[in-house]
Structure formats: C-alpha cells, structure tokens
Amino acid sequence: MTAEVGRPGAAAGQIRIFDTTLRDGEQAPGAGLTAAEKLEVARALARLDVDVIEAGFPASSPGDFDAVHRIAKETRGVAIAALARCRDGDPQRAVEAIRIAERAHLHVFIATSDIHLKHKLRMSREEALEAAVRWVRYGREALGRDAEVEFSAEDASRTDPEFLLQVCEAVVDAGATTVNIPDTVGYAIPSEFAALVGRVVDRVGSAAVVSVHCHNDLGLATANTLAAVQAGARQVEVTVNGLGERAGNASLEEVVMALRTRPTQFAGLGTRVQTEQLTNASRLVSYLTGFVVQPNKAIVGANAFAHESGIHQDGVIKNPLTYEIMTPQSVGLSGSTLSIGKLSGRRGLQTKLRELGFDLEGDALDTVYRQTIALADAKKDVTDADLVALVGQRAAEVTDGIELEAWNVTSSHGGRSTGTVSLCVGDDARQAEATGNGPVDALFRAVDEALEPIVGWRQVLDEYEIRAVTAGEDAQGTTLVRCHRSTDRRLPPATVTGHGLSTNIIESSLEAYITAANKLRAASPRAVAAGSGDGSSTEPETIVADRLP
Ligand code: KIV
Ligand code: ZN
Residue 109: CB within 6 Å of ligand 1? Predict the structure, then answer.
C-alpha cells in the first residue's frame, strides 16, 4: 500500500521535501545562526522549492521563537514547520510562532524506544502514547483542519515495532496528517529500515503521509532514506550539506539528485526541487554556518564534477556521459564568471543576482552593488562564489553598537607584532594597543582591551579559519571565528560565529572578530529584551535542558 493521500503538499507521484537545516541542521555544535541568517537560508530554501521548511524549535529560546515567527511571516509559497516536545508549553509556543504562516505545519515528537523512555523520559509506554495523542489533538484543534500536524516517534528504529505501530495508529486517529519515522541515532541498515517503514505504510499509509528522518552515524542516512521511499515513504526529512547533530542528517542534495537521476528505481516519483539552485544553497549554508563542505562530498563538493585523470578527461571531452551521471548545470554549476567593472550597472548586477537566486532591491541591492564595485577594483574577476559570499556576508552582519573605525599593525620577521584599533561602541570612542605573536593576534588583543571595560566580559577565541572564496592571487579571503565570552555567572553561555570578507586578510579577520563581539553583545539579556520584535521576549535567553536528538 502506498501513501498517496489527498493532503496538501503530498501530490500523487511526488516526494515531499521537508528541510530541517534550520532546526536539526542548526543543532550541529557551533552551527548556530542569528535570526537574520536563518531568514536568508529560508529564502534560499524557498527558491529551491522545498515543500516544508522546519524553521526551528520555538520553545528552546526567545531568540528561536522570534526567528521562526519571522520566517513564518515573511516566507511565502512553502509550509513552515516548528518543532515541539509533547509537553505542556512547547506545542503552544510552536503554534504561536507559526500560526501566521501561509501553511502552518506543527511537528510534535516524543521518544518511543524503551531505552529513551526508561533512561531519558522516565515514562512508561502508556504515558508516552497518551502524551503523543494529547498533543497531536491539541495541534489539530489549535491550527484547524487544513494545517499539517506531524508526529515523530523519536528513536523509532530502536522501538519495539508493535508499539511503534500502535502509536502511529493512535496519533493518526487523533488527527496527525504525517507520521515520521526517525532513525534518530543513525542505527538502521537500509533493508531493515525499509521493512519497518513498509509496515508503517501498510498500517497508516492510506490515512497519513509516512515520513522518514535519517541520521548519518553509520554513513547510511541517504541510503536509508531512499530505501524508505521505495517502501512507501512520501516525505523525506533532509538538510542542506547533510548538516545536523553528530554526523548529520540525510543530505537534501543527495536524496533529491538520486531521485532525479534514477527515476525508474523510484516508480517515477519526483520532487519539486529546483536542482539548479542546489549549489547556491549549499554555498550559502556553508558560509553562514562555517561548516566547510568536504571537497569529495557528493553533488556539492568542489571535486564532485572535477575529472583529474587523463583517461577520464579524455572520455568526458568525447562525451560527458562516459563519466558524468548528471550534468554540472543540473545542480547549478554554470562556472560562469561575471566581469564587472566600474562601469557595470546596478541593474546588470540585480539580474545576475536573480540568476543566482537572490532577489535584492533598494538598500540591500545598493550595499551589495557598492561592495561588488569595490571588489571589482581589487580583483580581476568577480565570480558567482564571490557574489554568494557578499550576499551571505550581508545576512551575517550584526550591528549591536560596536564598529571598527580604524586599525594599524606593525609586524616583522621574528619579532612580536603591535596592533592598535579604534572602535566606536555606541557614542563611546575607544582606542587600544596590544602586542601579540602575529598581526591578527595583536589586533584581536587590542579589540579585547578596548571592549572589556565596556561589555564586562572577555571574548575568547575558540576557532579561527581563513579561506579563499575563489582561486587566484587576488581572491577574497573569508574569515570565520568562533568565540565565547569568558564565564560570567550572570550571563547565559553563548558561542557565536563571526564572518569577515575582504581581499585583505587582516581586514577580513578583524571584521569577523568584531561581528562575533556584536553577536555576543546581542545575546546578552539586555539585548534580547530590547531586540524582541513583539515585546514577548523580556526574559533572558534560556536554553532547553535536554538536548534534542
Ligand atoms: O532525530 C530525531 O529523532 C529528530 C526528531 C525530533 C524528528 O530530530
Ligand atoms: Zn534528528
């Protein structure tokens, strides 16, 4: 039995793509995004034409609530999902965040495996079942009959199958329109997982969409997802670049391109995804999260379409079909460069950005235009990757009052470096000088000297990475820093990333460090209270105690 039911987004012959980059993906340690960054990723996902964007977990913090609410309000043409545990408070918060969406999709979950019930939740099976039914029913009533209510049985692949089937049946009777079977710890093997999903499809597939959510702990997330589709699953939960907890989730680009490249293996089922947008979405997510895509990563890795050996090159020149099972163009690798100079127009840039999937106008377009012209002055070719980085950088900018006015550094072979910085913090002008092992170290120390008396904590650098956006001597350097603030019991823990982008690597490093300083400042209780759009977030940032899977 298959799961082609007449539900929104589960059109016959189609696999529904449920993207959880902004929820499960963002749970990857160190991948945290600001609301503005999440919105930029949501726009990229909407351009990809995914069916559902899981925007976050609103009960986890006021910041995440605001981000989900903003995405629900501003993103059109796609369903917006929010995650909630089956416990009082969570589903209400999720409903509040997504009610405004064009299509709201509530996602409630509870663990069903004995391991989780006994050791994590300390609940009996009956209690878990009761909670699942209660909160599915709540969602159905709160959102109305047209909304999607999804239930996930966390750790389903290690759950007693009979109990899993019982839970699935009960939540569908209570109004769930989608039943999700997560392989939470990436434990399943494709044939085994397909058999389990097949049983769920047989039991509830005529009344609800059966979905799967696979983690990659054994490197099998994509394989398990595809096996589940062959067994009748009609929604797949995936993330861009396979981002996610631990070894990550099933990768959107791999699953989508497998379905597209091998339709006969999947009874001709397809997706709505605009695959030409895959490369841009991957670059944007990588840039904003600071998670570099490995060069040999399928579909979006830098080497995915590179042919090194002579025999392969010869074959591809004679006929690309010899070694390419899909074209680079089909995933958005046009390889085009945009020659932009002082005389290039704003409209030309806007058209090019549209081709890349970014719809910019007004001030946003002006800013990127100014930066592009400045970049064209500094380097020969402005490439697609440069433009994606510039747009990403705009989204990653956080201004919470700290601005860099000027810097200077002296450095010599074998000696220490001395750096000075001038900063503005609100109306306060600050200058500081410091020495360090190298020019970047000296300047970062000078920033610390200038800021500490004002902000009241010290910024601690955990990670520093610099990369060229494109090849060539004149390439832009993109810097990523990860920082936390020195322990201060009055403040919640916070780790943030900061990005910088410039053809001058010292400038790019400082920009990244100052962005991180602004983010740390914005994450303080003062800023959370002041920054909440609807006045609902007057409490300090709270972090949920039990981490999500
Ligand atoms: O991995 C998992 O089980 C999850 C659920 C919340 C769907 O992320
Ligand atoms: Zn997960």
Answer: yes
